[in-house]
Amino acid sequence: MITHYISDCERGCKKRQNEQHEWEIESCPGCCKLADTDWLNDLPGTGAKLDIFEIRFKNTHKEFYQNVNGLSLAVGDIVAVEAPTGHDIGIISLSGPTVFHQIARQRIKINDYEFKKIYRKAKPFDIEKWQEAIAREHETMIKSRQIATQLNLDMKIGDVEFQGDGSKAIFYYIADERVDFRELIKRLAEEFHIRIEMRQIGARQEAGLIGGIGICGRELCCSQWMSGFATVNTAAARWQDLSLNPQKLTGQCSKLKCCLNYEVPVYVDAQKDFPKVNAPLEAADGQWFLMKTDILAGIMYFTDNLSRIEKVIDLPVGKVKEIIELNKKGTVIPALSKQGITTKQEPLPDFKSAVGEDSITRFDKKKKSRHKNNKPRHDNPQNTTNNTHRNNQQPANNDTARAGNANNGNNNKPQHNKNHRRPHKPGGGKPSPRNENTPA
Fold it and tell me: What's the number of CA atoms in the CB half-sphere (13 Å) around residue 410?
């Protein structure tokens, strides 16, 4: 019987049970959240043994531990580490000099920080108990949400992480305001018979715990490499001349995207040379209004009519500065249409792909109306007027037709007048009901 490995991406490992029902764990650092890469591993002089290791637990939960017992450890080993109560089980995710770069990145002072201890490598009994605790996490999270709803608490429990020995659980929750969860802790302790720790997180941290794919097609930055979150506001979008559309600027956490901050310094430096255009440029061929700017290229686009854009000229930043200074002195410059590059807004050509697909604008063609010209519509008031005028002239024609039919003795059947049109109702386009005196 062959049993395949099951990937546990929340903890960065693959696991399976052998024929003796024993757990076999294999490290899989590439599929876990906040994965680390030891870039200094192949460099000479970096193979010295250090006693500080980075150990990962669930999702983005990582901590630094000290090897006080001098154990022979490597990346991927499962170890039992110190915990406030009992012990915890984790996987070594980083070792060597790169650990100190991570410590400095998180602004931890080594001399003042008290590192927890690594007890030993995990035994089969430790791993079995660890997997039993992991199997309880999802059910515990669902039950805790139900209890919080019963207590009418304005909070959301996003994740539950059990300690390796199963004696304690961390409940990650989100709340907009302060929550009194003392009664909730009592209920949870009575229900699950474990120690409870409530840890509040933000919406960005929740997105990092859950993970997902962003609009760029890559994994979310908060679950891939970000360990700290900087403040993001709409000023970052304004510096980059982006449209303030909430649907495009917000991420899966309903907050502004963290990637808005990535290119802001470049745009801030590029806009230092751009002048403030508070008034249109005065030229011999009229006024030219600022339409848009290409910040990275250093070009500003102007048009002669903002309501109907037909002509657009592009001028470099230096040229715009000169024109503004001349306008301040009252000098009207020569025609800008001859100095700049004038372009006309022309319709885009039909798109033709390499595989011979139809134009992407094929669905933009207007459909022909199914209504005939002689049939009235609801939204055309002229049809109502024409029908009323036609109804006023119709009785004379009807009387003449009836008289002609009475004199004609062809089986006493009235002849149909082809020139006669039956009056219509103003709204529906259906013929009016027959009167009792109208021949059948």
Answer: 7
Q: Which tens digits make up the pLDDT trace of 224-273?
A: 888 778 889 899 998 898 888 888 899 988 889 999 999 999 999 988 88
**Encoded amino acid at 170, one letter:** I
Tens digits of residue pLDDT in 138-149: 999 999 999 999
328 Cβ contact partners less than 8 Å away, ≥ 6 residues apart: none
Q: pLDDT tens, 389-403?
A: 444 444 444 444 444
Least confident of 267-276, 305-314, 345-354: 345-354
* DSSP code for 256: B
Distance, CA of 205 to CA of 236 (rounded, Å): 21
- Residue pair 300/290 in contact by the 8 Å Cβ criterion: yes
Helix H or strand E segment including 144? helix 137-150
40-74 pLDDT, tens per residue?
777 765 554 578 999 999 888 889 999 998 898 98
By C-alpha distance, which of 395, 388, 393, 379 is closest to 425? 388
Cα dihedral 139→144→149→153 (10° resolution): -150
Any idea which residue has 């089980």 for tokens?
Answer: 89
Q: Report how far residue 84's alpha carbon sits from residue 90's, in angstroms, rounded to the nearest whole number.
A: 15
* Strands annotated E in 104-247: 116-121, 156-162, 168-174, 195-200
Rounded distance, CA 30 to CA 219, Å?
A: 12
Amino acid 190: pLDDT: 92
Token duo for residue 7:
């990937």
User: Which residue from 12, 39, 44, 50 is spatially nearest to 28, judged by alpha carbons?
Assistant: 12
Phi-psi category of residue 107: left, alpha or beta, with phi > 0 → left and psi -120 to 50 → alpha: left
- For 65-132, the three-class secondary structure string (H helix, E strand, C coil) is EECCCCCCCCCCCEEEEECCCCEEEEEEEECCCHHHHHHHHCCCCCCCCCCEEEEEECCHHHHHHHHH
Question: Whole-prediction pTM value?
Answer: 0.64
